[in-house]
């Protein structure tokens, strides 16, 4: 009885110990696993590499409700069957599953369809057949002290390792079949797909070797298309656009083709890159392949096919047919008041057939915009920024931005012409509304596609000057969303002072922005100036500058434009103290304007006289400049005109133009011909220095062809004999003269070039020296009236036959003609020449 009693006691004790252990060990560490439907594939190919693939289902004994502890990781340990030698053990290569309770099967926890892959290359086995044991191990998913349950399933594995042949690239070859063409359009680019099956002689890993890079088995596939005459009309390149790139392949066994080494390849050919005329063409499509470093090329074959190229159209050839066009005054949009232009119509072509749109996405867009003009074509309003500026700001000012496609050629929409940007005084006005279109970048334009006269009531405009005082910011420790009305802000920026910047807006247009002040406790004083129409919305804003450009608005003050002065406190939100002074006054109004261009002669120099007549109201001479510049088109970079001279009118020269003493009067400017570029427009405008706003934008075209000038006149005055280092030289003496204005304008930039010619051939090499000194046939004059001497050995000069010489003179003045002087060499060589 005693042994039996002891046995019972022992069993009870073990049960108690197990119960205590179960209570102290977490449930997820006591998990038990049942593996079912376990399968191994020793020849799995994935992303061009060979793997041992294990697929299985796992059933868990204990469902774990705590999601943070319900994750388990399964990894492989592979051993030799005979010796038990461990070949692979990598817990970092795992498949994970959750032991949470199933909704469809309460009380059960399981994971199905688990896949674990082991790269064959990591087994380090020699070529040949091998018998192995595949063990499936499990561990908890914790980061700290995870429990490893060891092997939970074993399965025999037979595998055959392919030998590393390290073939030379010349051993590879390619062929193709089933080549098909299919018209397509990708990313707005119209063209056709070339599809074919490409067969390789060897898989990619046949070219692997320790001395070769990892991409040694990569090949690049491209096309060469030629016309019936053998001319190349398309070729795959290494361009940046997606359709210019080669197809990259790594030949592997394809299950769809009975494990043959076949790759399904698709390449795209854009029509605009196909150098063929519109219509049907018989072409030869050649498939070429290169190895990874382009050191070897493979000819996969060619096929002759018929292709059709549709007609492509230039950007400006687009036509717009308006079915409805209206202008509604006194409209407000996104904070600005103005004229609302509403339009409906159709385009003739979609962007898919526009030349260049495939390369340059901006050409896929047609951006309608308007200018307001006087009867004689002078500009009263034009957009100040390219369309992409408003496109990125999501502002519907100045443009109707459309992207016509062949599937949708119809368009409908509206855009606002803000009153603040119309250069007219308040009251009833008339103007010509002229429609144009441009691309998204504002580089290509088609002008005057529609023109109609409109009348409207122009709103009062104000010059708004904002003076922000120095701002003291609250420390972050004192911020409170409840007390200071501060919006939610990211947790990480609480750790230090904010990076802040200030900006000012009218409507949605930013017209002033400060620099970013890092970790700021205060913000320096700022000044911003703009123009606004009656009732326009203006805002002052303080922002937190986020490094990822996800900026956060901290505080703002907004008001509507009117003719008044006001000072407001900014002490709210993150601002502890500071103020904003707002001064609004009537804007400069141009009551009359006129410009004329006439040929003229000024101080002996040919050119053009530009006369400007202006009558203004609310003129402030301290803020307004008048400037003259070249003007090509809207948004094009403006170019100043050099050597321009004010010849009438009171004005002081300023680095950016002329500071006028009055806003009413006539001013005349002289443009020398050497400052004029043919075919351009000259624009004269008044500019508000602080608000960067243009008034009285007057332009006049220059002639397409300009006359030649001869401002520098040269003549041979005499010659003499002179010995230099015992060598007798003939000295030719020339007199030159030019208007003083030329040298005053050009200074040290002025150059004379001369060439001594004999029978049309340059013989400058005979010249031993000049006076003043020159280099390589180039003379820099320092006087408007002077002399220039050329020294030539007399013996060499007199040996030239026939005896006629000439010298060619020209300057670097634009539009200046070349002078050719004839010299009678026999006369020069006579001994009775005057001695000088």
Explained architecture:
The chain is mostly beta strands and about 850 residues long. The chain is extended, with a radius of gyration of 42 Å. Strand 43 and strand 44 (about 695-700) form a beta hairpin. The strands form 13 sheets. Strands 37, 38, 40, 41, 43 and 44 form a six-stranded antiparallel beta sheet that branches. Strands 10, 11, 12, 14 and 15 form a five-stranded antiparallel beta sheet that branches. Strands 18, 19, 20, 22 and 23 form a five-stranded antiparallel beta sheet that branches.
Please describe the topology of this protein:
Layout lengths: L1 H23 L8 E14 L2 E12 L10 E10 L5 E13 L10 E11 L8 E13 L7 E14 L12 E13 L2 E12 L18 E8 L5 E4 L11 E3 L12 E9 L8 E13 L5 E13 L10 E14 L2 E12 L18 E8 L5 E3 L5 H7 L6 E3 L7 E9 L8 E12 L6 E14 L2 E8 L2 E3 L7 H4 L15 E7 L2 E5 L8 E2 L2 E8 L3 E8 L7 E9 L4 E5 L5 E3 L1 E8 L2 E14 L2 E13 L6 E8 L7 E2 L4 E4 L2 E4 L2 E4 L4 E8 L8 E8 L4 E9 L11 E12 L2 E11 L2 H7 L5 E7 L2 E2 L6 E3 L6 E2 L5 E9 H5 L5 E8 L7 E6 H5 L7
Antiparallel strand pairs: 1-2, 2-5, 3-4, 3-6, 6-7, 8-9, 9-13, 10-11, 10-12, 10-14, 14-15, 16-17, 17-21, 18-19, 18-20, 18-22, 22-23, 24-29, 24-34, 25-28, 25-33, 26-27, 26-30, 30-31, 32-34, 35-36, 36-42, 37-38, 37-41, 37-43, 39-42, 40-41, 43-44, 45-46, 46-51, 47-48, 47-50, 47-52, 49-51, 52-53
